[in-house]
Write a structure and sequence with these properties.
This protein has 340 residues and is of the alpha/beta class. The chain has one domain (12-65, 133-333): Rossmann fold (3-Layer(aba) Sandwich). Helix content is 36%, strand content 15%. The protein has helices spanning 52-59, 76-84, 120-127, 131-134, 145-148, 152-157, 162-185, 212-232, 244-252, 294-312, 321-332; strands at 15-21, 64-65, 69-72, 95-98, 138-142, 190-194, 239-242, 253-255, 261-263, 266-268, 272-278, 284-286. The strands form four sheets. Strands 2-1-5-6-7 form a five-stranded parallel β-sheet, with helices on both faces. A three-stranded mixed β-sheet has the order 10-11-12. Helix 3 packs parallel to helix 7. It is globular and about 55 Å long.
Length: 340
């Protein structure tokens, strides 16, 4: 459906924010993609478990504008057929999310520029409706884990394997093409490129790759992938890189030199403590379905605001630790065990 973006009740100073990516950015409150009567994505506490962009909309919605919450989009084949006929493809697949959030679960680097679910060209078509606003807008590109995460055994054996070099070059190439496509139409728009984390830090993988050599190899391979993404942002003031791996390690740490899990506990105020464990309770970093939990996403949103201020000089109010505590504690409280 067409969107009358000119009549949206947003602050005139709000900075448009768009997202290209995968399930790491797909809003959990999407009842079109994830049925409301299930716990899929967001878990058993879904109504109070938010993705990072959902946190930003609640804490900085007057400064960063991801667009209105809409149920919008079409099946990929329909969107593609419309484009073949010279019509707008819109967003594909159909989901309930912020208008400018084109990330969808399962997306890989191939979905940035091509195929039925291509994200970047369709986002640009939407941005074209408001070119003046997007001259001061930001696009976050956070993708690649679905190309990389399934190769951990190979990374542990041989960090220089041809398959790893191929995956790195492919994703860097597709991300670079998406950047060029955006800047061809909106040359002033800032773009933040997000690296990927270490899937060996996933608690579901703690029993695997428990040697110094395997841990070192995985890190070497991952550093190579992230270096290729970081390089895309070099030498252009409109581009910046967000080091997702460094961010995670600053909060929860990593494995030790021998490859054994050795993670820290994150403390939010005097009551909320979050460990690198799995479960829908907010005291776990990851949900039971292995997607990022409430506290993870809130801390990530906090770091994103800081990075946008630092990299692009955007006039955003930092999300302070006390503000984050006040936001999180009521959401975590219903999950407390009886008598706690």
């Amino acid at each position: 459906m067409p969107h009358d973006t000119s009549s949206r009740p947003v602050s005139s100073s709000a900075i448009p924010l768009a997202v290209l990516g995968d399930s790491n950015s797909h809003s959990y409150q999407d009842n079109a993609w994830f049925p409301a009567d299930t716990t899929e994505r967001g878990g058993s506490l879904r109504s109070r478990t938010f993705q990072w962009i959902e946190v930003l909309a609640r804490l900085r919605g007057q400064q960063l504008d991801p667009g209105p919450w809409v149920r919008w989009g079409r099946p990929g084949v329909v969107a593609l057929a419309r484009e073949w006929m010279g019509l707008s493809g819109g967003r594909a697949p159909r989901k309930e999310d912020y208008l400018y959030n084109f990330a969808n679960s399962g997306a890989a680097c191939k979905n940035l520029m091509g195929g039925r679910f291509r994200q970047a060209p369709r986002l640009v078509a939407l941005m074209d409706q408001e070119p003046e606003r997007w001259a001061r807008g930001v696009v976050v590109i956070r993708i690649g884990l679905n190309n990389w995460g399934g190769l951990l055994d190979l990374q542990a054996r041989d960090p220089n394997a041809p398959e790893l070099r191929e995956a790195t070059a492919y994703c860097a190439g597709e991300i670079g093409a998406a950047v060029r496509r955006i800047h061809a139409a909106h040359p002033a728009t800032r773009i933040l490129l997000v690296g990927i984390g270490n899937e060996a830090d996933d608690p579901a993988n703690f029993e695997r790759w428990q040697s110094a050599a395997e841990t070192r190899n995985i890190r070497t391979a991952l550093d190579g992938f992230n270096a290729a993404i970081r390089q895309l942002a070099e030498g252009d003031a409109r581009l910046a890189y967000f080091d997702d791996l460094a961010w995670f390690e600053s909060h929860w740490g990593s494995r030790n030199a021998e490859g054994k899990p050795d993670y820290k506990t994150v403390e939010i105020g005097p009551e909320l403590r979050v460990t690198n464990t799995i479960g829908d309770d907010p005291r776990n970093a990851l949900l039971a379905d292995l997607h990022t939990g409430l506290v993870w996403n809130a801390l990530w949103a906090q770091a994103l605001v800081s990075r946008l201020r630092e990299a692009f000089g955007l006039p955003l109010t930092p999300i302070g630790d006390e503000e984050l505590r006040r936001f999180l504690e009521p959401l975590a409280a219903p999950a407390r065990a009886p008598g706690s």
